[in-house]
Design brief:
homodimer; mainly alpha; 10 helices; about 70% helix; flat; DNA-binding
Chain lengths: ~240, ~240
DNA sequence: TGTGCTACGTCAACGTCGCCGACATAACCT
DNA sequence: AGGTTATGTCGGCGACGTTGACGTAGCACA
C-alpha cells in the first residue's frame, strides 16, 4: 500500500460512491463528529462511519492514514471552535475565566476527540494564538513575566487536565458511566459512620456535588489566588518605588 | 454462565495452570501493571495478559467479570500505593499538599496505567480511605461542610487531572515526546515579535517552565485560595457569634 | 484410602474491530 | 477518443473481548 492518502489540495477526481455521496476530509470529519454526538463515543468505528457516510468503510483510508489520524484532525477542528469569536474585554479575571470555560466546554462537546487532543503540544496556529492571548491577558494585567508564565502554565494545564478528566467520564460506555455515578450514592451513601465519619457526615453533599464538574470552582480558586499574588506584587512595587 | 467469578475469600482450590502458575487477583493485577509498564497501555489485552501469566486468557474471567472490572481493580491499587504509610500531621495545608503530591507521583510511576485509571470512580476500599482522609483534613481544619466538599472535589480532580495530563506526556512514544518538547524552543522561540509580542517577550521563560509539571504551582494556588476562604469563614463566624 | 463434588483451567468459537492488497471503473488530461 | 490513475469496492487477515462446554485436579468427608 505505502501511500493511500492523497493530500486534499491535490484531489481532483471527485468520484461519488455507489450511494451517490461525494467524499472529502471535511465531510468525513463532520460525519464523525455527528456520529459521536448522536450515538455516543463508542459509535465511532470505521465500519459505522462508512455506513453513515454511504460508502465502503475502507474508503475512509483514502483520506486518513488511520483512525488516529482521523481523530487528530477532529481534535484540531475542536481547538478552532473553542477559540472562534473570542475577544478580550480588558478585565483580566473575566477574560481568563471565559477562556477557561470555553476550552472546557469545547472539549466536552466531543469527549472522544478531547481525550486524544488534550495532552499534545501542536505548535499550530490555533494553539499559538491561544497562548498569545492568555499571556497577553496576564501581562497587560500587570503580572511580572515569571509570574505570568507560571500562572499561564498552571491555568492551561488545569483547564486541559479537567477537560481530559471530564471528557473521559463522558466518553465512557454508558454502562460504566452509570456505574461510576452510582458509586457516590450506593457505596459512599452506605458507609458506616464509625469507620468513615467524615464521608458519612457529608454523603448527601458529595453525591450531588460529584455529579457536576469540579472545574468552575477550581478555576475560581485559581483566579482568587492569582488576584492575591497580583495585589502582593503591586504592593511590593509601590513600597519599593 | 451467570456467575463465573468466585469472591477471593471463598477460594479454596488453588489449582496451578498447565505452566505451573497459581493464579490470584493480586498476581493478575501485578502482572497487568508490569505488562502496561513494559509494553505500553495498548499491550493490556486479555490474550496477552494470559500469555504473560502463563495461563489461558479466559482464566482471567474466573477472577474478574470483565476487563473493565480488572481496570477498576488496578485503579484502586494505584490509589492504595499512593496513600500507603501516610499519616496526618495536624497541619491541614501541609497534609493536603503531601497527599496531592503523593497522588501525583504514584500515578506518574505508572503513566500508562494512570491514563486508563485516573478518571474512574471505583468505590473500593483504597479509594474510600483516601476520600475519608482528605475530607477529614478539611473538616477538622474548620471548613464548613459545603465548602469542605467543594474544595475536596476541586482538589481531587485537580490532582487526578494533572496526573493524567503529565502521565500522558510521559506515556508518549519517545519520538513524539521529544517533538512536543522541541515545539517550545523551536516554534515558540522563533515567533515574530510583531505578531506574537507576548510569546516573544517570554519565550525563554516558557521553554524552561514548560519542561516541568505545572502541578506543584497549581496546587499551591489552590491551597492559597482555600486558606483565604477559611480565614473568611472564621472571621464571619467570629463577627456573628 | 477412597469417593464425590465442583472450582477452575482449557478449548473452541462468535461477532466485532482496524486495516490492507487487489481489483474495477469513472473522471480527468491530451 | 484513448490512456492514466485516483478513488470506490471487495474480500480477507489477524486480533480483540467474551462465552459455553468440557475435563480434571483439589478439597471435604467417610
Amino acid at each position: 500500500m505505502s501511500e493511500r492518502v492523497v493530500p486534499e489540495p491535490q484531489r481532483r477526481r471527485r468520484r461519488p460512491t455507489r450511494q451517490g455521496v461525494v467524499l472529502s476530509r471535511e465531510l468525513i470529519i463532520d460525519t464523525a463528529l455527528r456520529l459521536i454526538e448522536q450515538h455516543g463515543a463508542e459509535a465511532l468505528t470505521v465500519r459505522r462511519l462508512g455506513a453513515a457516510l454511504g460508502a465502503d468503510p475502507s474508503a475512509v483510508y483514502r483520506y486518513f492514514h488511520s483512525t488516529d489520524d482521523l481523530l487528530l484532525a477532529i481534535a484540531d477542528e475542536l481547538i478552532g471552535r473553542a477559540q472562534a469569536g473570542w475577544r478580550p474585554t480588558g478585565d483580566w479575571r473575566a477574560d481568563l475565566r471565559a477562556i477557561g470555560l470555553r476550552i472546557h466546554t469545547a472539549y466536552l462537546a466531543h469527549p472522544q476527540a478531547a481525550l486524544l487532543a488534550a495532552h499534545r503540544t501542536t505548535g499550530r496556529t490555533h494553539e499559538t494564538a491561544a497562548v498569545e492571548a492568555i499571556l497577553g491577558v496576564l501581562r497587560t494585567a500587570g503580572f511580572p513575566d515569571p509570574e505570568a508564565v507560571a500562572i499561564y502554565h498552571a491555568f492551561v494545564d488545569q483547564s486541559l487536565g479537567f477537560a481530559a478528566l471530564d471528557a473521559a467520564a463522558l466518553a465512557l460506555p454508558a454502562a460504566a458511566a452509570a456505574a461510576d455515578l452510582q458509586v457516590w450514592q450506593a457505596s459512599y451513601g452506605r458507609l458506616d459512620a464509625a469507620t468513615h465519619p467524615h464521608i458519612a457526615a457529608t454523603a448527601h453533599l458529595l453525591s450531588t456535588d460529584m455529579r457536576r464538574s469540579g472545574y468552575p470552582y477550581a478555576l475560581d480558586l485559581l483566579l482568587d489566588a492569582a488576584a492575591a499574588r497580583l495585589a502582593g506584587a503591586a504592593a511590593a512595587a509601590t513600597e519599593k518605588g
